């Protein structure tokens, strides 16, 4: 590599070459590759001292490119570097320069090819962004996921798909080893012999973390490959016409999402209401991506989205409901980019009551894509470069949120406190850590705004007599209520009986348990007593949210139900010909059932993947000791939720103690026949990790202590009884008395 020039060498050269560009400088001194990064530092110094004219900045305000966008590849320059230009550029001045970085396995790209790319704003000496390929547009190679079996001449791939009865012959193995999980591309379909394929990617050990989500996708039948006609239809999509839409681009709407969000469904804005009759109230705007403008009824895109029902989220990947050019680009409300939306203007009273609302089909331009952490820091008084210009707008957003919390407290939706665990992966797909997500007021702010918008959508469609899919959550069954009531009684608490149960009664139970040793247990038991929500054209209310009518409207990029509601609003307001079709209306019941099943399928795949990742994370710690709490009792053993990771493990009955244990299913206890040692829900335990199996996600534990005391072994003394176990059948007074005894013993 040629030695870098000194900064003085560059000054002298610029004196002889006025008006030279940064690319000219790099060429003149023969600077290539990684050395351009060092050159960039020197050029910044020359900019600061005025020797070099500042370059055009394309990142301010509306001139910033979205993180996922469509690019057109330019011809390679004389040094072989590949550059690209954005297909959609509405900023001032010339479009930013984009360096395109190719990776092993990328298809060949030439001048004029269009690609969907992931952009990162990294300013080099002659470019503004770096881009990496997501997908070459117009190409949709099918993929095979299978186990590679090595043979004398190449090998074969045995797909892991359920019911697969054929294998693929492989000559282009890509260096795959016997038994590895691989991604492959079909080359030919043999009429008489085996079909041929080539290995595209080695995923390694099928039990390794990187393979976990892929296995779950195939086991649960998650559709992860779009048909060619669906991709072709999506690739033809272009910007939506502005005609007939309300222009909201001057409104400082902003998105607030997780830091790793690729798509942005919703944007928000609030301002204090100037109407003297609504003193202390707010005008709240919620704008939602207008997916219906791109996904027309009964199109190939529509049929595929209906089959998928929703996007499915894993720690290492997302299986989207819509092709990435829509979900990550055209439909997504990226910062500084004009986007079509369905907007909702709501007038909120000081007490949080929604006084009125109105829907519009509009055009918007997000002023900022903020993370929850950024929004929360701003509310805490810590502004950064992105939030400082929006200080007043953010203050009004949080003001509107705090008004809505007053209505929230009056309504009293179910107030469960179950922290969500987050699995953090390395670039290689290995689990780095498992933590519990922090929950800020910024999270609650977005949730409250979206709930109110969903209510407004349901109300409007009901008032206009339009067909729609409600989000239904029915009240718990009497059997589940009695089971929860019994558990509460054994723990020394009370759940109201003999009256119509409402969410406030559950909240009273949760409040009683708050801060006690049974806090998490009661929260989990309350959640398990609830019915599963579903979609239906009939309105049965939403029990958990304590709402009479509710519909999903705010996430049409990732949920098909929301797209149906959008079409209902389009039809009801006569905004266009892309509203509900006769077929949509006729098949609404079946659509509700289909997407409800898809939602359950995705939840099962996500849960299984999390279990496998946790098992893989713990596999290297077999023999280590952990603390946790008993979360379930069965005839064959007890389930323990570990404090550190939230993982659930099983203590088999054989690993509890050297005696026979009787199972009481009503009291949910195990009692030692010889010693009388009882084990019940909610008790604190210490366990040893006996086994962690990444393939199945199973975690086996050995019980060491229950509330500080070891289970009796052969010849051991009679063990004391656990608080819930001892109180079983004695009622609340007995349980309370038992808890006091335990506290005295501990003291």
TrEMBL record:
Keywords: Cytoplasm, Exonuclease, Hydrolase, Nuclease, RNA-binding. InterPro entries: CSD2, NA-bd_OB-fold, RNase_II/R, RNase_II/R_CS, RNase_II/RNase_R, RNase_R, RNR_Ribonuclease, S1_domain. GO terms for cellular component: cytosol. GO terms for biological process: mRNA catabolic process. It catalyses: Exonucleolytic cleavage in the 3'- to 5'-direction to yield nucleoside 5'-phosphates. Signal peptide: none annotated. Gene3D superfamilies: Nucleic acid-binding proteins (2.40.50.140). It is found in: Cytoplasm. The keyword Cytoplasm applies. Its main location: cytoplasm. Pfam families: CSD2, RNB, S1. Residues 623-704 form the S1 motif domain. Its EC number is 3.1.13.1. One of its GO terms (molecular function) is exoribonuclease II activity. Residues 737-747 have a biased composition (Basic residues). Residues 710-747 are annotated as: Disordered. SMART domains: RNB, S1. Belongs to the RNR ribonuclease family. RNase R subfamily. 3'-5' exoribonuclease that releases 5'-nucleoside monophosphates and is involved in maturation of structured RNAs. This is Ribonuclease R. It comes from Roseinatronobacter monicus. The lineage of its organism: Bacteria, Pseudomonadati, Pseudomonadota, Alphaproteobacteria, Rhodobacterales. The gene is rnr.
């Amino acid at each position: 590599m040629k030695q870098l020039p000194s900064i003085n060498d560059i000054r002298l050269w610029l004196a002889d070459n006025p008006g030279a560009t940064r690319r000219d400088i790099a060429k003149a001194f023969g600077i290539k590759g990684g050395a351009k990064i060092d050159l960039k530092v020197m050029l910044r110094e020359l900019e600061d001292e005025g020797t070099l004219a500042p370059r055009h900045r394309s990142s301010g305000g509306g001139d910033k490119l979205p993180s996922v966008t469509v690019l057109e590849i330019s011809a390679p320059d004389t040094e072989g570097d590949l550059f690209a230009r954005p297909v959609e550029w509405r900023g001032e001045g010339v479009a930013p320069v984009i360096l395109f970085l190719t990776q092993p396995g990328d298809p060949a790209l030439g001048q004029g090819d269009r690609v969907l790319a992931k952009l990162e704003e990294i300013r080099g000496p002659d470019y503004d962004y770096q881009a990496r390929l997501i997908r070459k547009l117009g190409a949709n190679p099918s993929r095979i996921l299978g186990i590679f079996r090595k043979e004398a001449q190449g090998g074969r791939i045995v797909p892991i798909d359920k019911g697969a009865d054929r294998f693929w012959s492989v000559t282009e193995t890509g260096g795959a080893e016997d038994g590895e999980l691989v991604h492959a591309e079909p080359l030919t379909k043999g009429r008489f012999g085996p079909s041929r394929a080539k290995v595209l990617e080695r995923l390694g050990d099928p039990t390794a973390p990187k393979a976990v989500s892929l296995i779950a996708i195939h086991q649960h039948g998650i559709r992860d490959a779009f048909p060619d006609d669906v991709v072709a239809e999506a690739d033809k999509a272009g910007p939506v016409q502005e005609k007939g839409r309300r222009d909201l681009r001057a409104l400082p709407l902003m998105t607030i999402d997780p830091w790793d969000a690729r798509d942005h469904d919703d944007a928000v804005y609030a301002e204090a209401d100037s109407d003297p009759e609504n003193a202390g109230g707010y005008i709240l705007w919620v704008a939602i991506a207008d997916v219906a403008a791109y996904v027309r009824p009964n199109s190939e895109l529509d049929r595929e989205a209906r089959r998928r029902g929703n996007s499915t989220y894993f720690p290492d990947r997302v299986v989207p409901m819509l092709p990435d050019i829509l979900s990550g680009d055209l439909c997504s409300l990226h910062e500084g980019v004009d986007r079509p939306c369905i907007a909702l203007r709501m007038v909120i009273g000081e007490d949080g009551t929604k006084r009125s609302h109105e829907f519009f089909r509009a055009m918007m331009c997000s002023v900022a894509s903020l993370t929850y952490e950024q929004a929360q820091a701003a509310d805490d008084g810590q502004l950064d470069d992105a939030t400082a210009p929006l200080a007043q707008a953010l203050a009004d957003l949080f003001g509107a949120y705090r008004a809505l919390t007053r209505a929230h407290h009056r309504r009293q939706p179910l107030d469960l406190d179950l922290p969500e665990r987050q699995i953090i992966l390395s670039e290689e797909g290995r689990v780095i850590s498992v933590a519990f997500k922090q929950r800020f007021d910024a999270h609650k702010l977005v949730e409250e705004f979206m709930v109110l918008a969903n209510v407004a959508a349901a109300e409007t469609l009901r008032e206009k007599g339009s067909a729609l899919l409600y989000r239904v959550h029915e009240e718990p069954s009497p059997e589940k209520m009695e089971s929860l009531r019994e558990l509460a009684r054994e723990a020394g608490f009370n759940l109201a009986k003999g009256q119509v149960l409402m969410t406030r009664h559950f909240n009273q139970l949760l409040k009683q348990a708050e801060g006690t040793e049974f806090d998490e247990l009661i929260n989990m038991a309350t959640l398990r007593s609830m019915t599963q929500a579903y979609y239906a054209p009939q309105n049965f209310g939403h029990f958990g949210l304590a709402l009479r009518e509710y519909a999903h409207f705010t996430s049409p990029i990732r949920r098909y139900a929301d797209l149906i509601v959008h079409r209902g609003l389009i039809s009801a307001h006569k905004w266009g010909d892309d509203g509900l079709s006769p077929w949509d209306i006729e098949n609404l019941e079946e659509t509700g059932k289909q997407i409800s099943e898809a939602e359950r399928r995705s939840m099962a795949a996500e849960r299984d993947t999390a279990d496998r990742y946790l098992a893989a994370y713990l596999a290297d710690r077999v023999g280590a000791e952990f603390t946790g709490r008993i979360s379930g009792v069965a005839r064959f053993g007890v389930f323990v939720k570990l404090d550190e990771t939230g993982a659930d493990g099983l203590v088999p009955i054989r690993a509890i103690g050297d005696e026979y244990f009787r199972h009481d299913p009503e009291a949910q206890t195990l009692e030692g026949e010889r010693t009388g040692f009882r084990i019940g829900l909610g008790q604190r335990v210490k366990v040893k990790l006996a086994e962690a199996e990444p393939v199945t996600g199973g975690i086996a534990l050995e019980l060491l202590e229950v509330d500080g005391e070891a289970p009796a072994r052969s010849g051991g003394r009679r063990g004391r009884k656990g608080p819930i176990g001892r109180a079983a059948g004695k009622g609340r007074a007995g349980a309370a008395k038992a808890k006091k005894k335990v506290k005295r013993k501990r003291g």
